[in-house]
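>> received
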Amino acid sequence: MQSIKSNALEPTAPELAEMTPWQAVVRRLPVYGLPLLTLLLIICFSVLLPDTFPTALNARSILADKAIVAMLALAATLPMMAGRIDLTVGFGIVMWHILVLSLQVKYGFPWPLAILATVMCAALVGFCNGLLVEVAQVDAFVATLGTGTILYALALWHTDGRQIIGTLPPAFLAINTTSVAGIPIPAVYVVVLAVVLWIITERLPIGRYIYAIGANEKAAALNGIPVRRYVIGVFVSSGILAGLAGCVLGAKLRIGQANVGLDFLLPALVGAFLGSTTIKPGRVNVWGTIFGILILAVGISGIQLLGGAFFVEPLFNGVTLVVAIALAAFAQRRRTAVKIAGPPR
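>> returned
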């Protein structure tokens, strides 16, 4: 769990003032390393695949395909800010996309009410996760793994191993198929959610409280921060975002099946972990998560266009996750060593 603690490593103004210009550039490099690497990958694939990669069609495809993963990554980011982990973002989307379709196809719910009911159920599961972690004092990994497995079992029971198929309202399908200025609307959802979460976590006191809990829970409690309330709150918020992602997935797939959804868990966690190595290195952050997902999307798309095999995507995700955690751990050790040695003279 130490790999998701909120310890910022970005250089401070006094620290940069004591460095030479070259040292300052090197010190800032980890902050923007991931965005620069993303840009470098885009340039490389554009040179290697000039007819297929740098096209509007491929860009729209990348944005549309990875928007749901990005929403889940943002959902996973919130508990990580508080030093917890939520695995139900991957298991839950299996249930939520089935539920939003079932409510419309089997029970005749209007599509707005079906989405509202699904999101409320997802929030309730998040609340239960928060109670398990904070009240029952169950480790977050174990609690959310158990809750997620229960959701997966319920999805299997509800579908009886079959697909949920039926006529869906065009307005519901439009939540995935609409474009805004040529940009797929799921990508617009991601940008809007990212901006809202950035404002909350970086510009409001609630964000500082969540980061304080993630950095040192006992110190946060001694300073009067209601730890239990905020931790339960981040799990509820994570559930809401996962529920919304499930609704978009349902509109995208148009069928509900229990074998769809778990493939989203690993890339979502990879994006959140990888994001902790950039923008604010050592601290899970919203824009870092977005760039984490973006580099995964660009890398996988380029490799597949080059003729990569079907197993490239999970392999790329797994390797990237290991590398991201290793880099985060290395950055933390380096920062600790600098603090012990003192500032350069």
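>> The mean pLDDT is 87.
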